[in-house]
Amino acid sequence: MNSIFKRTYSYWFLLPAAIIYFIIFILPTIMSFFFSMTRWTLSDWEFIGFENFITFFQEQSLSIGFKNTLIYAVVTCTLKVALGLLLGVLLTSKIRTKSYLRSVIFFPTLVSTIAVGIAFSMMMHPTQGVINTALAAIGIDGPDWLGDTRIALLSVAMVDVWKGLGFATVIYIAGILSIPAEYYEALQIDGGNSWHKFWNIIVPLSRPATNSVIILAFIGGLRSFDLVWAMTKGGPGFTTDLIASIIYKQYQGGFYGLATAGNVILFLVVTALAFPLYTYLNRKEVDL
Amino acid sequence: MRKIRQWGFEIGAVLFTIVVFWIPFYFILVNSGKDAKESSLLTMSWASNSQYWENIKTVVVARDFMLVRAFINSTVLTVASIAILIVLCAMAGYVLQRRTGKLSPLFNFLILAGLIIPPAIVPTIWVMDGLGLFKTLIGLILIEVALGFPFAVLLYKGFMSGIPREVDEAAVIDGAGGIRLFFGIILPLLQPVTATIIVLSSVTIFNDFTNPLYFLPGSDNVTVQLTLYNFQSQYVTQYNLLFTNILLITIPPLLLFIIFNKRIVAGMTAGSVKG
Amino acid sequence: MKNMKLKSLAMTATALVLTGTLAACGGSNSGSNSGTNTAEGGTGGNTEKKVTLSLLVDNTQDSVNLANAYVDAFQKKYPNITVEMETRPGGGEGDNIVKTRLATGDMTDVFFYNSGSLMQALSPEKNMLDLTNEAFQSNIVDSFKPTVSFDGKVYGVPTSSTIAGGWFYNKKIYSELGLKVPITWDELIANNEKIKASGISPVIGSYKDSWTSQLVVLADYYNVQAQVPSFADDFTAHKATFAGTPAALRSFEKLQELYDKGFMNKDMLATTYDAGLKMLADGKGAHYPMLSFASPSLVQNFPDEIENIGFFAQPGDDASKNGLSVWMPGAGYIYKETKNVEAAKQFLAFMASVEGTQVAATVSKPTGPYLIKDAKIPDDVPTLVKDMLPYFESGKTAPALEFVSPVKGPSLEQITVEVGAGIKKAPEGAAAYDKDVEKQAKQLGLAGW
User: Fold this and answer.
1) Among the four residues B24, C219, C250, C447, which has the most C-beta atoms within 10 Å?
2) Is there a domain that residue A189 lies in?
3) Are residues B179 and C7, on separate chains, in Cβ contact within 8 Å?
4) A237:C421 CB<8 A
5) How far apart are CA A284 and CA C238, in angstroms?
């Protein structure tokens, strides 16, 4: 039986995928640890120890990426969880326009990030832009969304939320729909109102959905690149630079070793934050 | 009374979506019909003399039909990547779910790592270059496959666990080997999750910007997302053409959305919560 | 068991076939790799044989027009040579493409690229063909050669005329307000105060295209070297820094002053280069610190306003030392591994001839004197170019820093945006730039860093 088992589920099935995955993903990841310690022109390299990492931490134009990336990931993740949950509740309730609303909120997920970034950066133009023209019409003097260093990063984060909210909402819809009806019935018997329903049933029982949204949004936020690049290229100055955009700029400059060091740093940051988060969330789930 | 409140609420919600979700698209739509001068004002007003057709022609013809080549490249990229992804990941998911052994934790770890870890860009370029695949479409296809692998395998694994082992056993008793069992019986049964992966991956790959930017540089092999980026180039900023380009490259995802709207939402929910 | 093995083999074979077909598919799409070297072996100056030469240029309209003009005229003169042109993006994106193509051994026979520090960053001795002993070198003005040289060997040929960096100004505004062209920084500030009082933006900032923010700092170099003649050498040798040299720090201070005094347009961070040119032509802004390579697009987009736009060098603090910072044009280089050496050299020789400059002038009016001996500037150049000529005639010009020193930090444009938009003060900006330069020098492995 064992041999039938082995033959039926032969590792040969795994092989083609494993080869591609190994050569194109795992191998470069392993090698990045070596090349991050070199001065590298692709054709030849010179070992320089931790110098690239020191540069990364010392130089303000590079180290600013840590703070920004963290802020960006936390802000987008929190908003996606909060708004996704609310919309999820709304769109599973008895409203007539439900399917229209679901479609509209989901659609931005399918549109190119670059297109969204370009369109929004024009709408956020401080004097001609649609947003500030509209605000001016009701007597508000709108800020320079992408130029003001205090809010530029948040403006980009808002667009990220706009685009990614549909995804979070759909996950929540699924999570909420999978809650067995008995819970609601029990609550009705106990005479709970809709507030109780929300806090005591929906929030705890859509926990798996929350976990998915947190993990996806948080990791996505930490790795984010295209939206920032399309909207501000990290500017003004370095105000909206994320680790990923800094890596790209070093790559552009031909500093391949330094870019790879940035990659290793991003790798470590993501791993150090995401793995514990993942295990933490999954453990809690079992407790329920 | 209650009904009025309900309606008021619904109208409010719809109005809200119009302001927040429709206006950006309307903005793109009106500005792609203007001439360069008018579009540079970035207003929401309808074009004073609309020239959609001229703009579309200009964008299509620009730089030796770059956009047409880009559409061909992006289509080949998307279709080929997904075809490979589906076959290879279904096979992998099938074995990984059915066969548990000493190696299983390692496999699971590697797959989870793939979901979380950002790819190491320059070393990947180095490897691709060594294989002669850097700056080729086939190279980019392999990259999309490798990066899409963890997610697709997880979905397949999740779905496989819902297919009872009795199905396999019956087939083996009938004398089917692994290949016949998989391609003849299992793969057809995986069809719902396959559909989900096709829809989700096609959007991701078609809209991918970062990987073509890194692994397919230059103006000969562009994908649609890069045309958009190139149009935004330093010196020439013709907003009307930029918006026309946005409009054109949004059509494929829009069609996909119209056709598969229900399926996307349903399929995604099935996969993501379990996964 | 045997059967099983066979089946697995069959499966891997299918997988191979599958990838094989895809390879074929991909191959047909990578047109750039195939077809360039159609005349392999047809080298050695055999003029009978058909030769196809590949050429890479950046995709700005002006460069493409210029390259097309060279190619058309060249092909007429040498019917056996066909030149196939490829384009690449400009700016940092383009640098990156040129670098990776060189690094991966996939460059065109001839390529156009910047001269000066950017060229130095390409490892010329490894990637470019040495042109020091070519006959056409005698046509080229000597001041150009150091900007395309490395270790005493010359690698390039100028693609167009010199470019000047300084201040474009709207002559209508100047005459309405009765202003005079300033020759000291204080006079410029006084002019700006008057312009501001009249309700017009005195200085146009277009920091959305961040490269434009560097101009005030870079165009100040004539003044820096007038005060500290040894700055470039000391800077290259890591003996002098921007923050530590008052004359160099002054360049950053000027940029800061423009912001502090409220001379910039309010939406400078959202304004693009194109929008900046439009503001200047429409008289919504009085000054625009810019390179004279903007003149073709001004001619093209604002033909009615072009004669109202003038030019002056960025003034320093001493009226007796007023002069112009000059940018060298990009150059044509030959890829070291090219199989078409003779044809490539013929092409560059053509560019380096008076005939070549005449061809260039038909599509792109010069933005300053040519770098080819005996080449004349046509009489119908716009006023702003004529405004530049006196500086050249009186010898009051100096090449910008990036043409006399191989070190230029890649983040200067972000740093000048910070200083120019009040995010950082001048001393902090200068210090940040010194750090950035150090990073570049270390990554290039320059001696002394």
Assistant:
1) C219
2) yes
3) yes
4) yes
5) 57
Residue with tokens 């297109």: A115
Selected for mutation to probe chain B from C64, C87, C206 (highest B CB count within 10 Å) is: C87
Q: Do B137 and C29 touch (CB under 8 A)?
A: yes
Q: What are the C-alpha distances in Å from B266 to residues A86, B261, C36?
A: 19, 9, 50
CATH code that applies to domain B65-274: 1.10.3720.10
User: Could you list the pLDDT tens digit for every one of the 288 residues in chain A?
Assistant: 566 777 778 888 899 999 999 999 999 999 999 999 999 988 888 999 999 999 888 877 778 899 999 999 999 999 999 999 999 998 888 888 888 888 888 889 889 999 999 999 999 999 889 999 999 999 999 999 999 999 999 999 999 999 999 989 988 988 888 888 888 888 888 887 888 888 888 999 888 889 889 988 999 999 999 999 999 999 899 999 999 999 999 998 889 999 999 999 999 999 999 888 888 887 754 443
Instruction: Compute the residue count for chain C.
Output: 449
User: Touching B: which chains, 3+ CB pairs < 8 A?
Assistant: A, C
Rounded to whole angstroms, the Cα distance separating B60 from B67 reads: 6
Residues forming a β-bridge with C309 = C170
Q: Where do the domains of chain B lie?
A: 65-274
DSSP label at residue C446: -
The number of beta carbons lying within 10 Å of the beta carbon of residue B110 is: 16
Q: Considering CB atoms only, which of C95, C210, C267 is closest to A252?
A: C95
Domain that holds residue A60: 47-267+274-287
The answer, as to whether pTM is greater than 0.90, is no
Whether the CB-CB separation of C75 and C50 falls below 8 Å is answered with no
Domain C163-327+387-444 of CATH type 3.30.460.10: no
Query: What are the residue boundaries of the structural domains of chain C, listed by start?
Result: 51-162+329-363, 163-327+387-444
C393 close to B (CB below 8 A): no
Tell me what ipTM this predicted complex has: 0.88
Contact list, A7 vs chain C (CB under 8 Å): 1, 4
- The position carrying tokens 């989870």 is B112
Q: What does CATH list as the number for C51-162+329-363?
A: 3.40.190.10
